[in-house]
Amino acid sequence: MVKVEKSENVEFLEKSIQHLEATGFENIKADIEGYETPKSYARKGKEDNVTPDIVAIKNGRKYYFDISLKSTKTRLLKSKWLFLDTLSRMNSNRFRIITTKGHYKFTDNMLEDINLSNKTPIKI
């Protein structure tokens, strides 16, 4: 999810965190009130930072999660996903995308556009 849209979708972010807690994730960091903020990564030559929506640990392995909801800023979202996927592979971590009903097709099209069609989104 793009930073501008986070304030509009706090409910879905909280619902996603509850789902992750129920499936055994721990040490959850999220970019909302009440949780520790995940580490941000500065983009070289740009003013904005890339921050994963949720970071959690399960079985000793770090997972980066990004929320996929329909957005007009598709280019920014694609670059964020590619960065998080590359970062997770470099450090032997995992990158997952969380989506919900009404956003499946948008998510699948975005993943196909950036050749990440091997990723299966978590559907909540």
Specify the structural class.
alpha/beta
Fraction of residues in β-strands: 15-25%
- How far apart the termini lie comes to 15 Å
What is the name of the CATH class? Alpha Beta
Give the mean pLDDT. Answer: 90
At the third CATH level, what is the topology name?
A: Trna Endonuclease, Chain: A, domain 1
How are helices and strands ordered from N to C? HEEEEEHEHE
Structural domains: how many: 1
Q: What order do the strands of the largest sheet run in, or round the barrel if closed?
A: 1-4-5-6-7
Helix content: 25-40%
The counted number of beta strands is 7
Radius of gyration computed on alpha carbons: 13 Å
Shape: globular
- Biggest β-sheet strands, sense, barrel: 5 strands, mixed
What is the correct CATH architecture?
3-Layer(aba) Sandwich
- Low-pLDDT runs of 5+ residues are none
Tally of contiguous helical segments: 3
Polypeptide structure, described:
With 124 residues, the chain is an alpha/beta fold. The chain has a single domain, classed as Trna Endonuclease, Chain: A, domain 1 (3-Layer(aba) Sandwich), CATH 3.40.1350. The chain contains three helices and seven strands. The strands form two sheets. It has a five-stranded mixed sheet with strand order 1-4-5-6-7. Strand 2 and strand 3 form a beta hairpin. It starts with 9 loop residues before the first helix and ends with a strand. The model has no long low-confidence stretch (mean pLDDT 90).
